[in-house]
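Forgive a beginner's question, but would it be possible to get any protein sequence you like and the tokens describing how it folds?
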Amino acid sequence: MKKKLGIMILIIFFVLFIIFGLFFLIPATCDNDFKIYPEEGYCEFNLKTCEGLFGCREYENVQVLCGSVSTLCGEKVLCDCGREEEPLSYSAYGIKASREYRPFSYRPEELKRMSDECGIKQDTGYFNRLISKFNDSMEIVYSFWYQGGDQDSRPFVVTLLPNEAEYSSLEEFKKDFDLCAAAGDLYPMQLNSDWLLFVSSCGSGALSQGSCDEIKKQVEPSLKLN
């Protein structure tokens, strides 16, 4: 009897060990197949993510519109269809311009601090609701500097953010995102139904002199949202 009881305990222990292994010891995996179809105006992906043998989920033939952002395997992926029309027009003769994408960078606490500095009083809940409108948004960052110039000098930076809050006036835009501190990088300047446009200052002291100021004088007046 004791022998049978011992065997049963061993069997139960072995089964529990297998279950534990299936759920926790098998390393998590994530695979995705992301394809872009610019002519049709969408991207398509297949996604399989697994955490243990019984924790697998599969998504097949998921379609998202051009310009949308998807989270695949812990990373944000932009459906960039490479359309010919740029969202921003500018004049930059003799100036090098680069463009990169980055996730939406504001936090509710930061916006509240900026609002307080500008004398506009809003509670943190207001900015939590505002930030939620921009979930998964991607900023487009344009950097301008002289060809062959000092690489340590500060570039003039223009940032575009999708107008997910549907602002219709610059006054509405500034009410939520205005920056009253000096030497900042994100000052609201323009908007249309699709985009919000921010410009940077050129800093203060030595960094404000030279190429950044000269580039700003040339590029800033020519900025236009398409």
The mean pLDDT is 82. The longest helix spans residues 2-25.
